[in-house]
Write a structure and sequence with these properties.
52% of the residues lie in helices and 15% in strands. It is α+β, with helices and mostly antiparallel strands. A five-stranded antiparallel beta sheet has the order 4-3-2-1-5. Strand 2 and strand 3 form a beta hairpin. Helix 1 packs across helix 2, helix 2 packs antiparallel against helix 3 and helix 6 crosses helix 7.
Amino acid sequence: MLLTTADPCGVQRRLWLCHWVQSWTDNRRAIDVARWASPWLSIVLIVLAAAIAIRLARRAVRRAVRRWEQGGRLTALRRRASLGVFQPVPRVTPVAAERRRQRAATIGAGLSSFIAIIVWMIAIVWILAVMGVSAATLLTSAGLLGVALGFGAQNLLRDLISGTFIIFEDQLGVGDEVDLGLASGTVEEVTLRSTQVRDVEGVVWHVPNGEIHRVGNKSQQWSRAVVDVPISSRADLDRARDLIKTKADELAHEPGWRERLLDAPEIWGVESFTADTVTIRLVVKTAPGQQFAVARELRGRISSALLAAGIAPAPVAGVDDSSR
C-alpha cells in the first residue's frame, strides 16, 4: 500500500535511516521502525567511529614516540662523541634505558589521553546534535564548562603544561640527581602531573610540576666530582699535591673505575687557607651520576695515602694538637 499521509521522516538529517528505508520501501511499519532506530543507530556509529579513531591515533602515537626515542639515542651518542671522552662509557645503562622508556611512555600516554579527550568531546557534540540539542545550547554549555574548568582546574592544567615541557625538553629523567628547590635527591618517576624524588634519607617527595620553578640537574650529559682535601698548613704543599694527583691518576686507570671517568683528574690548586689549614681542590669529570661514588673513593684513598706518607691532616677545630 502506498503512503498517502505526510512524510513521516520529515527533513531532519538525523533521521537518515528513515529516509533510506522510505526510498527503498513503502512499508509504513518499516519506516516507523527506521524512524525510531535512526538516532540510536547514529549514536552507536558515532561511538564506534570514535573508538576506532582513538585506537588508530594511539597506534600512530606509539610509532611516533618509538621513532622519537630512537632519534634520542642517536642524539645522545653524537653528544657523547662530541664531548671528547677520556674513556668510553657504557652506551646503554639500566638507568638510562629506564629513563628513555619512562619518558617515551609518559609522552605517549599524555598524547594518547589528549587525543582521546578531543575525539570524545567531538563525539559527544555529535551525539547531542543527533538527540536534537541545538548548536546554540551546545556552544553556551561548552563556554560555561570551559570557564568552570579554567577556575577549578587551573592548578592541574598548570601541572600538566609544566610537565609536558619538562619531559619534552629533557630537563630531568629517571635516575637523575636533581635539586628542585622544594626537594633534592634521585628522580624515581616523572609524569605529566608530578615528579617523584627520593632524598638521601630515603624520603620520597612528590613535587607538582607546576611548582617547579628551577631544575638543577647534577647528572645530565656529564658530572664533576669535586674533592677538597684539607691538610695542615705546616705540611709540604707540593708533596701533598703530587700525592693527591698520583692517587687520582691510579683510580682513573683501574678497570673498575676508568669507565666512569670522562677526563683526566685535575688539581685546581689551593681552594682556601687559614692559619692552620690549607685546602687543596681536586676535580674529576665523570659519567652522569657517578660523581658521588668517585668522590667517596678518592677521599678514602687520598686520606690513607696522606696518613701513610706522614703528611699532617688539618687540625680539628677546638682541639689542641700541640701536646701530641
